[in-house]
Amino acid sequence: MINKIDRLRGGLVYSKALGMFNLNRGGGSCRRTPACADCYVNRSCQAYKLTKKAWTPGGTDDKNWSKASSEVFEGLGRVRIASRGEALRTKADVDRVVAWVKDNPDTLFWIPTRAIYKNRGKDLDQGHMEYIEYHLASLPNARVLASLDPFTAHHWPMLEKRMWSTMFYESKNMPKGYKFKGTHPAKGQDGAKIHFCTKTWDLYFADNGRVVGPKGSCATCENGCFELSRVDVWLRNHARAAKNSAVTDKIRAMESLDTEA
Ligand code: SF4
Questions:
Q1: Average pLDDT score over residue span 132-143
Q2: Rounded distance, CA 142 to CA 161, Å?
């Protein structure tokens, strides 16, 4: 069995926040929408020089991505692919991830993606979607989720129809006339299966006054991103929660889904 040091040498990093290893990729790989300006990676890059250095194209994240192989995932129960960066940008990327997933049938691979969008989120790249569906999403240990934000929220009905799970985050940036402000784009729609993400909704004030989520909750999360059937994961904005009571906000959001659905 491969040890922790070899996993790190092989390109993985361990995240205490997620409670698992993940494999990152540099910022040049992202397929961006205007919501990306509010991405937690950008905020983290402003706060930490090391993250900025790692995420800069050609930096540590890209080096780690290049050297990863099936062996580094051996024996892991769960792993996140691309906590930052885009894992499935090209067909060759998809093929590479498929090989890792097939070579490790007992490992659950969590793979959020924006590679299915084009024109800054306005349109879906149907051909790439089909390629991912056929080769990767069909594998029993792959958990592929479409990353949703206010600039891609209009794709939810099509994603649901094609049985894609989604991960929604409401950025501060929204298109003009955005109609889902403060709620989830699947609200009231047939087929919606909204899951409040524990890590971002069950927040509390730490001793230093900062609002934090439960550490490591992704390692044991049951009905969120690792759910076998289709799911709509709703990620809460930490910064906004800091100004309010996170618990009260959650109850309010749940009531709003119940009463107005
Ligand atoms: S839904 Fe679960 S696995 Fe997904 S981010 Fe939230 S805690 Fe982690």
A1: 98
A2: 19
Atom of ligand 1 nearest to the CA of 233: 1
Pairing of strands 20-23, 13-15: antiparallel
Name residues contacting ligand 1 (CB within 6 A).
Answer: 195, 197-199, 217-218, 221, 224-226, 233
How many residues appear in the chain?
A: 261
Nearest CA to ligand 1 atom 8: 218
Beta strand segments in the chain, E: 13-15, 20-23, 78-81, 108-113, 117-118, 123-124, 142-148, 165-169, 194-196, 204-205, 211-212, 232-235
Over the stretch 89-127, which tens digit does the pLDDT of each residue have?
999 999 999 999 999 999 999 999 999 999 999 999 999
Nearest residue (by CA) to ligand 1, atom 3, is 218
Residue with CA nearest ligand 1 atom 4: 225
Hey, what's the torsion of the CAs at 108, 43, 216, 200, to 10 degrees?
Answer: -90
β-strand partners of 211: 205
Quote the CA–CA distance of 111 and 136 in Å, as a whole number.
Answer: 10
Q: How many degrees, rounded to 5, is the angle at CA 56 between CA 53 and CA 62?
A: 100
- Give dist(CA 187, CA 26) in Å, integer: 34
